[in-house]
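Hi V.,

You were right to ask for the full record rather than a summary. Here it is.
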Amino acid sequence: MKMPLPWIYLLCLMGIALGTAAQTQEVIFEETVSVGPFKQFDWITEEDIKASELLVLDVDVLGGRKLSKILVETPDDNFNQIARKVQQVKKQRLSSSKEGSFSFGFHNNSLLPKKARVKIVKVIPDEFEDQRILDDIKITIFEDSIQRVMVDTVPWPDLQEVELSLSANRNPEDISYFCEDFQLLGPDEDQYAVYWIGIGEESLEAYNKIKNNPPPAWLMEGINEPLVAFGMELTRSMPVTRSTLAEGVVLQVRNPKLPFDPSKIQYGDKRSSMFGIISRDRAREFNAVKICGKNMNTTSQIKIYIKIARFSLKRKIVYDRVIRERAQEVFITKPVLKEQEE
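Predicted structure:
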């Protein structure tokens, strides 16, 4: 099998290129070109290619067809490279001893149009320079401790609990409303509180069911009370009633300093969540929780269960064990890759 001399020259260049150091590549042309019957597609590099740079050519003719000819003209005087009956070209390296433009021609001397994926990559050999670089790091390890202050959450040992029975809202003399004040730990205490309001006996049964069978994560903290677990962020949810009677009860966690007028409570008034947090700032300001409500049902009485859990915030000193490392750097001078100029 005879091989055109230009391709032998290219194979030699490829062997030389494979022996060079690391190289930077830049795609300068990548398109699917269309070549009509008895037509040709020409492309010339926009910038001059330096003598130290290589071009890598990839061609893939679509549909299993072949181009009649690929012609490459280099900056070298009178040096053209020709390949005939080409269906595919893989990583053919092109070089020139002179700086200048490369010209590529793709010829179709048949009656059928042809398409080819063409990719041309410019390969720039990387330059090296002497530089002082880090060669080794000698590390010495020793143990130490760090003192810090942290806030510890301490649950108060008892719950405040209230059970109320609200009459149906039929007559003015019926006791269909309530307003309860719950005192916290004291105005000088750094504290917060959480509350839970159950409507109907089924809500209390759901609460006690969790209390009698708490999750293992609670038991590891010595806790089985759901409201205390909620206050310590061991859970984000609490049991709430699904009874339709609850829709007729308006419950509000109110400002302890404001009076409560049950006659102004309406069915569509804003209602508080059935469980929640009395923040640190609110607990410090009021030292109390005020929960009020009214049964708007005209035919059914209903039971209300309220639980309040209080928490102190105590500052304590803890010691964290840390491993410290001391590093000593060792530098040497050796050739390194030269950074490309912007």
